[in-house]
């Protein structure tokens, strides 16, 4: 008997935690290595073909032939899986790394549910007609190197080897160096089109990162799209001066312009039904008794469509410049990243929704590996209800019954995709 | 001939600068040592008795007897100066350390003007009836160890040796360790009442740190008082969450409360004729895509009297709590420091103003060594006009003619005090 959902959850919960402060499972660290060892052990314990691909993503394969003889271990293979020629493999999974002080569910719920769904299919005696795998994508959160979804981006060719080699952590260690120190050969990293070509569908189960399901009777929903989103750096250039001696009328205080922009961002987003957040700010010189010379604030904004997003950001920028003119503060705005709208493959999405029968179909503002891969192959997502709505923080939560409903829904979907 | 004001200024300007970014002359660093060596050389070159006191403050003394024979070098002494029994010494000076990326004038103008005024008195053939000294107080800005006026506080017994031993810089080096590394015996630090008892008056010349003189015909002013001032830490506790997925209505975003408080501080200060500044802010977790769990902002506020200051801070706190209630954000306020009103000795102040004839008499919001010492002995301050009004930044400036007027005014005042 493989370990139950609850047993897997308890084992994984013990790895990379920091007391009450949540998890710090950053890519290619010791905590990440513990999680990766756990994944490999789960694969091997189930007799799945385990492998690590060139970009450090972990795969656990169940082949077509094995489904009829569930108790024969498949052993390890360094190949892409049992069926090199297949083009219709069905893959589920997510990631095991975390944001700083992150919650337990974002990522791990999809991986644990993937193994549990495979166990359920086996218990059901489901006869696979296509290869089935659970995947753990490397470095999804980007907490260490600043770029999200590195493992899936590399595989999909959306991040080149040269770009990846320039990524550095806060200590100046490059991604390839970090991979090498973790025992992974960085010479191999790069696009992996043959591997992705063998996959016919990728379904990622994820904790909901909001409260759209919380007030419904549905423990599970299906993703419709990932909102377009981006990051904009606002530089507010004022005049550094002495906080104790400079008359208010003589000041050019960029903190005032920043504060006005923070409030404008909330208001403009609310009026447009969009999201806007300032979660990071840097001040120069940053002394208690010094009027800042420079305040730098980062805007994260997202909306249902790109036109709305552009309009909201323009309005926020306009409010910043208006106030800057009054404050004697020059405002510079730089778009640091932008991700267009991702619409999940409608055929796959509709098939999931039909199989699950009338569950909510919801958009999200968060990026995921399923979003990255959607440009290359049909992908879909299932959400599990989160009563707190909290994400990327220790209060992130799903009830045990809802997790079980998620596993059942995932098993239903995988059975539908892999057994027909 | 001792070096002229301009020659001294050029020599000193070359020390501890960082290209166009201003000066980084932090206490007990290599840049500070260069400035201190310059001070000792100025003292010795003029035949003044040079000494460093137990707290690292530097003194250059001219005794009564020497004033009649200006060309005889006095040599070095380790004593407190030429007249151990005197209780009426007249002292001028300021400090040579700087804030991060500070200007050239804050501190050095008072030291250079002190030497130049002594030269002028000698040129005038003034006959001293009291000992006269130039002082360089150690660590006035507090840029390295976080507490201002350490040298004068220690001497005046306002900072104990034990408290001083607990001061640490950003690298964890304690003040005594830093002093020892700079070649100064930290065993000796502590109150110096006998030294201060020998001083009858301390007059500090300083660049004006605002524009009160800028629009007048007066290059020089006299200080009336130092406004009461303090620092308050505002902790805004919200709920960390995902910036891309959390609905606006579900957020408890402390950045909004902080922004409202910044704007309220400006408004309340303006209405009360006070000053209020947020120049430092820290955010947890500080990720671009994370709604903050905690925003911490530091308020610097100052006013003409303590009642007004208390009222302004209460109003700002009230605005923070009102908005916090709307945002679901808990607000905690901690007073981290407070300095009561300093009124300069009225007799000395009036004597300076009378000697200089109708110059403006002005309060300031900035702390100074003269403010610390005012609790122990009669102190006064002269300000030199600053057309930019900028202070603690590279744009800090005084015109050459105004610096010369400052030296003349200081010489007039010192002559009045030391020759009668």
Give structural notes.
Two copies of one chain form a homodimer. By secondary structure, the first copy, chain A, is α/β, with parallel strands linked by helices. Chain A folds into two domains: 5-227 and 341-418, Zn peptidases (Aminopeptidase); 229-339, 2-Layer Sandwich (Alpha-Beta Plaits). In chain A, 34% of the residues lie in helices and 22% in strands. Chain A has helices spanning 5-13, 30-45, 108-124, 150-156, 161-165, 175-181, 193-197, 254-272, 306-327, 346-356, 369-373, 400-418; strands spanning 49-52, 58-62, 89-95, 132-137, 199-207, 220-226, 229-237, 241-242, 275-284, 290-291, 294-302, 330-339, 342-343, 361-364, 379-384. In chain A, the strands form three sheets. In chain A, strands 1, 2, 3, 4, 5, 6, 13, 14 and 15 form a nine-stranded mixed sheet that branches. Chain A has a four-stranded antiparallel sheet with strand order 9-11-7-12, covered by helices on one side. In chain A, strand 1 and strand 2 form a beta hairpin. In chain A, helix 1 runs antiparallel to helix 3 (108-124) and helix 3 (108-124) crosses helix 12. Chain A starts with a helix and ends with a helix. Mean pLDDT of chain A is 92; it is low at 66-80. Chains A and B meet through strand 8, helix 8, strand 9, strand 10 and strand 11 of A and strand 8, helix 8, strand 9, strand 10 and strand 11 of B.
